[in-house]
Amino acid sequence: MQFKNTIIASIPILGAIAAPTGSSGKNPDAPATFPAAYGLVVSTHVDPFHFETVNANSGKFWLNLPLTSTSCPSDVASQGACPPGTDTVFTGAGGLATVVPGGQQAYALQTGELRFTGAHANLVPQGAVSSPFVYEFQDGAQFGSVTSYAFGANGFMACPTPGSSAYQVFLNVANAQVPLGDTSACVLLGFLAVPYTQGDAAAWQYD
Question: The whole model's pTM is what?
Answer without folding.
Answer: 0.85
